[in-house]
Design a protein that fits this description.
single chain, binds glutamine, alpha/beta, Amidase signature (AS) enzymes
Length: about 475
């Protein structure tokens, strides 16, 4: 087994025992990248030079015994997180040459922990998409089948973890963008509670929905990452000063006597029978370790997708107004006056999906339509949130599929935005309600594609999600496979 194939917790032990050096781990990751990146295309840019500097520092820290569990661990960063002095494109032409003057809070925290940044991972443009096909920098393939999508929008992050082109990764999730690609690439992805992880330095898509979270090889690594990502940030007004537990304390605990809610609205027509079978199997596994399964109802579920596709574009149209070719980013060279420069910059700088969202968002916020669309969607959002509040009065966690199907083919939904939007049908509700959700591998289809199980928890109950996800991972004993690249 190559070093790049280990988990962060396994490598951390080896690093601390001086069995390997951070440099050797990084060498292994870059060897892997040389071998498979041509096929997968998980990265927009690599940070090789600074990564080796970080590896030297990590080895020094390790030799002095001043390490954390992330010291010397090579990770991928979704290219939506600002990295000081290093290009941050958000998958868009409009930010092709943007070099942030500061680090996002999560980047600062990971640096301080001694993690090593391998590169900036590919993503749908401005995180709008479910397949990583809208990036200005090309598409990413699913490591389990190169003709399939890796999911999105954090498809580069999930593919890099699955292909062992890094040990763990950072993603962002506005409507499923951590959990959906994690599920489709057979890895673990956690979207924390809104306010749990600072969004300072995360390029904004829909500010009331966006959250940063980890994508990892297993649940234990996910807990380790959360220990370093979570916490209050005075620079971010929606970050919450709630104490951060040690998430590792939730591992290896029993879930006997827990009530696991299974919402009937999540087993709809259109869900692939193989996916449903894997989810049903997960339910029996949990019953086998003493969980009580209860069918529940989240009655406003059918409105989630429509509600999201009003609120997210509305916020996006406002957030993306800043890209006008003046302060930073791409500027069209051929505008004759200011107005024409604005128009051409935005026409040339944004791709089709981003333009579609800006048009929808501007429409639903415009005078005369605001009440009918944006206001109505905000009211429905409150009802969706209340469904969860009521459910968590009687359940510890909720179990659902992560996606209705396994990874679809590249190009299959590219021309059909509605079909693309429907691939987030099970993940969007958590963002609307602000609650945390985790995707964990549940098994493989006959064709060998991974399928994910999703657990949803009440606000700030990431610990409970990790506890049940870890119990499931232990008990389900999903066969260990590696993508054949
Ligand atoms: N696929 C959804 C969208 O296109 C969610 C994206 C996300 O979570 N960033 O908006």
């Amino acid at each position: 087994m190559e070093l790049c194939e280990y988990t962060a917790h396994e490598l951390s032990k080896k690093l601390r025992k001086k069995e390997v050096s951070a440099k050797e781990v990084l060498d292994s990751v870059f060897r892997r990248i040389e071998k498979v990146e041509g096929k997968v295309h998980a990265y927009i840019s690599l940070m090789r030079e600074t990564a080796y500097e970080q590896a030297n520092e990590a080895d020094l820290r390790l030799s002095k015994g001043e390490s954390t569990e992330l010291t010397g661990i090579p990770i991928a960063l979704k290219d939506i997180c600002c990295t000081k002095g290093f290009p941050t494109t958000c998958g868009s032409r409009i930010l092709e040459r943007f070099i942030p003057p500061y680090d996002a809070t999560v980047i600062e925290k990971l640096r301080a922990a001694g993690a090593i940044f391998v590169g900036k991972a590919n993503m749908d443009e401005f995180a709008m998409g479910s397949s990583t096909e809208t990036s200005y920098f090309g598409i990413t393939a699913n490591p389990w089948n190169l003709e399939r999508i890796p999911g999105g929008s954090s498809g580069g992050s999930a593919a890099a973890v699955a292909a062992h082109e890094c040990i763990g990764a950072i993603g962002s999730d506005t409507g499923g963008s951590i959990r959906q690609p994690a599920a489709l690439c057979g890895v673990v992805g956690l979207k924390p509670t809104y306010g749990r992880v600072s969004r300072f330095g995360l390029i904004a898509f829909a500010s009331s929905l966006d959250q940063i979270g980890p994508i990892t090889k297993d649940v234990e690594d996910c807990a380790i990452f959360m220990n370093h990502l979570a916490g209050y940030d005075p620079r971010e007004s929606t970050s919450v000063p709630e104490p951060v537990p040690d998430y590792r304390d939730f591992l290896n605990r029993e879930i006997k006597g827990w009530t696991v809610g299974v919402p009937k609205e999540y087993f709809i027509e259109g869900i692939d029978p193989e996916v449903e079978e894997i989810v049903r199997r997960a339910i029996s596994t949990l019953e086998g370790v003493g969980a009580r399964i209860e069918e529940i109802s989240l009655p406003h579920t059918p409105f989630c997708v429509a509600t999201y596709y009003i609120i997210a574009p509305a916020e996006a149209s406002s957030n993306l107004a800043r890209y006008d070719g003046v302060k930073y980013g791409y500027r069209s060279p051929d505008g004759r006056d200011l107005l024409e420069m604005y128009r051409k910059t935005r026409a040339q700088g944004f791709g089709d999906e981003v333009k579609r969202r800006i048009i929808i968002g501007t429409y639903v916020l415009s005078a005369g339509y605001y009440e009918a669309y944006y206001k109505k969607a905000s009211q429905v959002r409150a009802l969706i949130r209340r469904d969860f509040d009521l459910a968590f009065e009687k359940c510890d966690v909720i179990l659902t599929p992560t996606t209705p199907t396994a990874a679809f083919k590249l190009g299959e939904k590219r021309e059909d935005p509605i079909q693309m939007y429907l691939s987030d049908i099970f993940t969007i509700s958590a963002n609307l309600a602000g609650i945390p959700g985790i995707a964990v591998p549940g098994g493989f289809t006959k064709e060998g594609l991974p399928v994910g199980i999703q657990f949803l928890g009440n606000h700030f109950q990431e610990g409970k999600l990790l506890q049940i996800a870890h119990a499931f991972e232990r008990e389900a004993r999903i066969e260990k496979r590696r993508p054949d690249l």
